[in-house]
Amino acid sequence: MARKDGYSRPGLFGSVNHYDSSGKKVGESRPGLFGGMVNYDANGHKVGRSNPGLFGGMNHYDNSGKKVGHSSPGLFGSYHNYDENNKKVGRSDPGFFGGFNHYEDN
After folding, report:
1. Mean of pLDDT values over 11-37
2. For 46-93, what is each residue's pLDDT tens digit?
3. 21: helix, coil or strand?
4. Strand ranges, E, within the chain
């Protein structure tokens, strides 16, 4: 079984809070004005955005607009996560009480 590296849980007004494996908040994603999500670090600084992909999933960009990865749908509501070179780096599985549990590929 892969090690759980963090998790994300729904917040208020469509936001998503992100936590590391010890439960410390490491970031937040908020709905963007024109769709997608705007991503922030634990200090509230904008670090990028995530936009829906053409075939489902999300494309992830840094503040300069460079694509830094994408997530594509898997089975049973999970997502496979890839870096900018299309190398699989992990997966996100639905949590029992909502949100997602994140696992890093070894």
Report:
1. 95
2. 999 999 998 889 999 999 999 999 999 999 999 999 999 999 999 999
3. coil
4. 4-10, 16-20, 25-31, 37-41, 46-52, 58-62, 67-73, 79-83, 88-94, 100-104
